[in-house]
């Protein structure tokens, strides 16, 4: 008993380390921590926004239907690069689902991953997500190439990259929704 009183903090630290080493507990802990620390994404200042020079990007949905990103010329678009094995990606998906449920009819959403379509379908069904998931058939436009997951780009009607966020964020935040509303009001 005396040992526990003196070393309780060390024992808790050891248990936490063990939980972070074991794969079955590590991923849920990482997802939870990412949700706790996810903030609203910051927008790029207007003077620093770059134009998306090309929208030519061939994709295919989970049913095999081809789609080209050119469809989003003149539209507000959100492109999220993600994977089912990526804890920060999984952490931000609930906020994306809520955002998509509210804005899916006014904003073009692209959730792009290179994983197996059957694995993706199982993941989406298990989580009850109806997000539009695509597989790339070629390289993304140059301004939307990233080696980090998750990476999310928000493109204005005028083809400006307004958000370039690496890492998880809270996409269903009132500040981000205000940005979307402002972008939707812009003329093309």
UniProtKB/TrEMBL annotation:
InterPro entries: AhpC/TSA, Thioredoxin-like_sf, Thioredoxin_domain, Thioredoxin_ResA/DsbE_sf
Domain Thioredoxin: 48-185
Domain of life (superkingdom): Bacteria
Pfam families documented for this protein: AhpC-TSA
Record's protein name: TlpA family protein disulfide reductase
């Amino acid at each position: 008993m005396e040992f526990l009183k003196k070393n309780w903090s060390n024992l808790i630290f050891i248990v936490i380390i063990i939980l972070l080493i074991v794969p079955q507990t590590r991923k849920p802990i990482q997802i939870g921590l990412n949700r706790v620390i996810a903030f609203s994404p910051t927008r790029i200042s207007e003077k620093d926004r770059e134009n998306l020079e090309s929208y030519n990007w061939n994709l295919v949905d989970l049913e095999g239907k081809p789609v080209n990103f050119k469809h989003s010329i003149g539209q507000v678009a959100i492109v999220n690069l993600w994977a089912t094995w990526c804890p920060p990606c999984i952490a931000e998906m609930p906020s994306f689902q809520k955002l998509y449920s509210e804005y899916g009819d006014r904003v073009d959403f692209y959730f792009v991953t290179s994983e197996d379509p059957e694995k993706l379908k199982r993941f989406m069904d298990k989580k009850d997500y109806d997000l539009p998931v695509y597989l790339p058939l070629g390289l993304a436009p140059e301004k939307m190439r990233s080696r980090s997951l998750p990476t999310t780009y928000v493109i204005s009607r005028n083809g400006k990259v307004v958000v370039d966020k690496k890492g998880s964020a809270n996409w269903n935040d009132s500040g981000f929704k205000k940005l979307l509303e402002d972008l939707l009001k812009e003329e093309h």
